[in-house]
Amino acid sequence: MWRLQNVGDIFDKISLYSANLKTVTLQEVQSFLIHEQNDELSNDDRAVSRFICDFLKDPQREVQEPHFSIGEFLDFLFSKQNDLWDPSKDTVYHDMSRPLAHYWIASSHNTYLTGDQLSSESSVEAYARCLRMGCRCIELDCWDGPDGMPFIYHGHTFTTKIKFMDVIRTIKEHAFATSEYPVILSIEDNCSLPQQRKMATAMQ
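That's the Phosphoinositide phospholipase C sequence above. Prediction below.
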């Protein structure tokens, strides 16, 4: 991996792998894969050639020795094809039968907020988005509402308020849209006892 301080360093580094500073040839791509990526693919000319063609997706450039333009090479550097992530880990591969406390849990703080913690909008859509992204622990900051039912907002600030019941309905609708695993409701309960009872009834 390159340890670069600014964008200019990227172009200085690219000059090591582009003799004419316009294109990156098959051999230069191989050199990059060897010296920067330690990629075993670099040992196979045909595999590297196929890799470049697959990335370019241009039938007219499917030749024996394809090349990148500098722009295409930069696109490759920041592309999914150059990602460190192992795609085999896209699906659950751990033992999921152990106690809950044995796992790191994807969690959200102030889930309802769409911006800063002082004056931004609160939104039920924020809960839907968070759950659909795989989050399994979401936060509800609950305060007494004027109609006998709690609302949710960042207390003692200028953030807007949303109804507790709207949030509960949204959670029910989206909780298991992308994951079958439990959802933890982290409730900061600032409500009076009567409204706490209504919260409990709503979640039964």
